[in-house]
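Still learning. Any example?
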Amino acid sequence: MPSVAMVSRLRRGDLFFSRLRRQLAVAVCPFTSSAAAHDGGTGVSGPHLPVLIVGAGPVGLVLSMLLTKFGIKCAVLEKSLSFSRHPQAHFINNRSMEIFRKLDGLSEEIESSQPPVDLWRKFIYCTSLSGSILGSVDHMQPEDFEKVNSPVCVAHLSQYKLVNLLLKKLEKLGMHVYPQDLSDDWEPDSPLEKRILMGHECTSIQPTNEGVIVTARVHNGTKVEERRFHCSILIASDGARSTIRRLVGVDMKGERGLQELISVHFMSMDLGKFLLKNRPGMLFFVFNQDTIGVLVAHHLEQGEFVLQIPYYPPQQNYQDFSPQACEKIISKLVGWAPQDVQVLDIKPWVMHAEVAEKYLTCNDRVILVGDAAHRFPPAGGFGMNTGIQDVHNIAWKIFYFLNEVASSSLLRTYESERRPIAISNTNLSVENFKAAMSVPSALGLDPTVANSVHRAINTGLGSIIPKNMQKAVLEGIFSIGRAQLSDYVLNEKNPVGVMRLEKLKRIFAEGKSLQLQFPAHDLGFCYKEGAIVADTSEDTQNCNRAGSGTVSREYIPTGRPGSRLPHMHVKPFTAASTKETLSTLDLVSGDKPEFLLIIAPLKASYHIARVILTKAEELQVLLKVCVIWPQYSCQSRSTGSRTELKPWKNYMDVEELKKERSWWDMCRLTNNGVLLVRPDEHIAWRTESDKVADAVLEAEKVLSQVLGL
């Protein structure tokens, strides 16, 4: 068995080789300049920053909040001069809401800011917003409200409103937004941490022996300045068209150009009031002879909407979608003309399904997160949610790397864990998008035919036809297609219409249309490898591994390494009444990157806990023990853990509040079970205390493997 001194020497050796690799990286990074190789900081603005985040969207802001809470100094660069008010993403899934619970009550503020759930729980399919309803799907189930699988429900809140809430939280932590003209004279030695610097567009990246130098272009009044920042780690959270990803030469792989659309952000209290009274919902899929579109109701009570319209360039021009033209389209989709429509923003965008070839580059000092690492169709709302979970995964790893507890091998587990999840979510998003297309297909309007015709005009013989004729041909074909949606076809007296409407009913009844919630993926995603000690037990079917190809609603809790810690209500011994309960997820700290060891009150389990506490202290790893007692077990509770874990004080006792089965049954372990949980609430290791022959050797092996030593 290796001694503590030997393990310490091995750690120092590992960190030495990590530093050596950083020096070698300067020679092999494709964008290294000779100046970068020798410039330890000359001309660099401000002191060296541990972490620089590029991109101040929800993903970048959440990471800045996590790092700030962990005591890691960081700053954010944002190329825009102000924050966008385009609603963009709006669905927040269970796992993201669980993360937000730990961000100083952010989930509660989201719940109080969002519309009432009954106003957005349905998707509605209709011939117009005031016309016939073809079908509707309710996406909320009783278990969602009963909080069986999670202590918090999903939410519906526009992205810009979420950003505003995050900025307020960051202000309380001392992090503030600064305009591009910070001062008339840029002070190179001014502190940069806890700043969100607007109007800073990254133009180049240069690796150094100590990290990365980032050059940003800043429009300061009438002049353009260049500012340089030196950081240990650069985080690319700068969106789907990431500048950082392009600068480091990382390619995206997958399906490009699935669909082009025009996004129209508008306000209308008249329309909001009408839908509130007659047919409240989140998404409205409208199919009629005049036009086709999807309306996202961001807030019916405030009259805020986004309309998504299929777009076929170059035959259709972005300029064709003027505010006046969009108002006419809105009237055709509504079935009457709201008098108070105010078009706020019109944007073209392209739907892709791609994942970056790698997430870390430049000797693991440049890390891609969020849309910079993956681009999904919006079907299922996986984009922002996957990004939030990306940074939840990497934040604690950055902490232990920068504090020299772990080497960069721990950072690399971010890619081995999160990239397979992104690939799985990409596949699921594409399948869900195809499910959405099954509805117009059932109505005789196959979108694949429209896209094939469009491609033929652009690339086949149609490409030699004059542009104005191409547009006429395309619109003529689309007009013929939309004729399938006429009242003459879609009625109970037309056999074709009856057949199509029956097919549509089956699609809705069998859950084969666009879905909103995927608990098996949202809560059940599981890491195969990475910062875990994988085991080979028989409950692999209960762990929804990335790339499994299984689309299931059912989430099955498990204690398998790599999976999220299951949720169960427990009562702290210090609680004054049974109403004071916690979720098992609350046992993991949200304010520091602390591991959690969960045991039952057994002699062998207490012994393992003492050994792991000792080893964690040697390695400078934060760790707390939680003892879960059976419900109604009063004997020895008051002194049991205090006696068994003495002199350690970083532990807590809780009691199960089970309804059907015990905690250990849920985790598929006996009460000899031992679980090591990471700071991101994923299980790193599990065992049975009566099967551990040498606790000291086991503790060294487990912590070394999880930390990548």
Summary: The longest helix spans residues 408-442. The chain has a mean pLDDT of 88. Residues 207 and 307 are 43 Å apart (CA to CA). The radius of gyration is 28 Å.
